[in-house]
């Protein structure tokens, strides 16, 4: 008896391009519902933790709640929002842009 979408994702089942340490933690962040497929997307929390090195933990990655992060010019508050290949991610305070 399922009650809604799955909210957990094991680190072993995470896509390889997310660069999640499979031996360090049991769970990986699960993307929120979006038009992008799981195997073609990269989560905002993974951008902040692994790529940009702005946060060490998931709790520190909640800086996107302060509305500094824009994806394609729109402010995103959801840390599990999935961005795809041609999305432009910009951070207002640091003036850093990633495509």
Describe this structure in words.
This protein has 99 residues and is mainly beta. It has a domain at 30-98: Roll (Structural Genomics Hypothetical 15.5 Kd Protein In mrcA-pckA Intergenic Region, Chain A), CATH 3.10.290. It contains 1 helix and 8 strands. The protein has one helix spanning 44-51; strands at residues 9-10, 27-28, 42-43, 69-71, 74-75, 82-83, 89-91, 96-98. The strands form 3 sheets. A 4-stranded antiparallel beta sheet has the order 5-4-7-8, with no helix packed on it. A two-stranded antiparallel sheet has the order 1-2. The longest helix is centred in the middle third of the chain and has 8 residues, at 44-51.
Helix content: under 10%
One letter per element, helices H and strands E, the order comes to EEEHEEEEE
Q: Which structural class do the helices and strands define? A: mainly beta
**CATH top-level class of the domain at 30-98:** Alpha Beta
Named at the architecture level, the CATH assignment of the domain at 30-98 is Roll
CATH topology of the domain at 30-98: Structural Genomics Hypothetical 15.5 Kd Protein In mrcA-pckA Intergenic Region, Chain A
SS summary, helix count: 1
Superfamily at the CATH H level of the domain at 30-98? RNA-binding S4 domain
| Rg from Cα | 13 Å
* Mean pLDDT score: 84
Low-confidence stretches: none
The profile of the biggest β sheet is:
4 strands, antiparallel
End-to-end separation in angstroms reads 41 Å
Q: Quote the beta fraction.
A: 15-25%
In spatial order, strands of the major sheet run 5-4-7-8
Specify the overall morphology.
globular
Number of strands: 8
GO molecular function, one term: rRNA binding
Protein name: Small ribosomal subunit protein eS4 N-terminal domain-containing protein
Organism: Eschrichtius robustus
InterPro entries: Ribosomal_eS4, Ribosomal_eS4_N, S4_RNA-bd_sf
